[in-house]
Amino acid sequence: MKVPLLLRLPAEILTYIFEDVVASCYGAHKELRKYVLVCHRLTQVVLPLLYCDVLAGVASRTALESLFAALQRRPGCRESVKRLEVQIPDFDLIHRRNFYIVCDIITCITNVKALTFCGGWERYPDQTWGLVHRASQSMPTLESLTLSCVIREGLTVRDILENVQMPSLRQLELDGVALPTGGRTVGAEQKANKPSCLPASTKATAHFSTLRIRDYQENSAATRELILWPRALIHFHASLLGGSNPECDLDLSKLSAWLSAHKDTLETIHIGYIHKFRPDKLFQTRGFNALERLTLSWWHIRGYVTLQQDEEHPPFGFTPAHADALLCAPRLTTLELDYGESGHVLDSCHVFGEVEARWIRGLAHAARARQAALQTICVRYRPQLYCLAEILEYPWDRLTQLREDLQPFEIGLEYDEPSFSEEEWAQARMQASPPWEAMRWSESPPLDDGILFGCGLSKDGEPSLEEQEAWEYAHKAI
User: Fold this and answer.
1) Contact at 8 Å (CB) between 111 and 82?
2) What are the domain boundaries of the chain?
3) Does domain 251-437 have CATH number 2.40.30?
């Protein structure tokens, strides 16, 4: 019987082939199961790949026992586990025996690189942190740890500082950290009576160099302790910070002050949406000697958008304070501005108009005048087709023009690919009613500076006959 060419390949080549399948194909595990049944040789190659990613649901004892039994029977599969996710639903009643089985599973898989704990912090805090401790003892090569709180209760900075001690850790990701509030469980009530953070003895004791926080609602003292905890941060990524609680008082100025403790090592900083807008509190790049890429939400530079300009709300524009804050890092080559979620009803994340373009031109002019290192401005702009009330032109026309305007300054402009075509936009506009109010009060007029087909727009009353005819003519032209 002639042996197929695939089976004649060395085991190392077969492994590379199937690893590429797993990395590039969604749902590849389902397809790989078929190859396990082909022959003994393919079983030896493919089966360990099926155990690279393991999900342990603590609520199901049957599934846990089956997983543990399979790992016990196959030493090669135990060594192949590189990523483990432990899911602990806070709303389910879980027998303590289930936690013992998960503890045994963690003990027997020692080559894990990425570990995730999802839930368990409110209802089962002792058991969950016990599993974290066991992982720190049994996984000497662990590089990435993710702690996620589904219901935003029970996971605090104090607990993290006390319990996460992993010398091999390179990345820590926290999702759902919140102030202790004394929730419905006894454990949460006990935590509410403890201080929210540890003393300064934790400073510069952690080994990870990448910190990612999301949906974060801790107080300023705890946040400062968390940022000062690692010896040296290289990458910092934060989004959805703060909340309605007055103790969650965060702004760009405070974050830049705390992050300055890592000013000689931080290479990338990403700060997304913060609950409170304070355009007078800018991120200060001075002294960040290693910083190469900075990402900020546009709305924390712009502040609240007002419908009308007056003495209390003067026109927004680029100022020397913006240049002093953003152009002082000697190696900052890329500034990314995120025009996404604004978090306020009067802010529109779907308008990139002349106000925004004029500010970027001012930044480019200041960068050239100061001989700053800035080389690229990235615009994260992802409007939705159905949100067209204030869009009076195809959104990417102005970005294309702006890219040309920045060429004399030797600064490149990068932006997201259009999420909808110009034809789709035109069809949607024809189905919408004439946006007279948006055309009158928009701070970002269309490319013709507010003149639609040579016809001015009245500022009060109903649309004039000329305006209506111009709008109808525009529809016919489209």
Assistant:
1) yes
2) 1-50, 251-437, 448-478
3) no
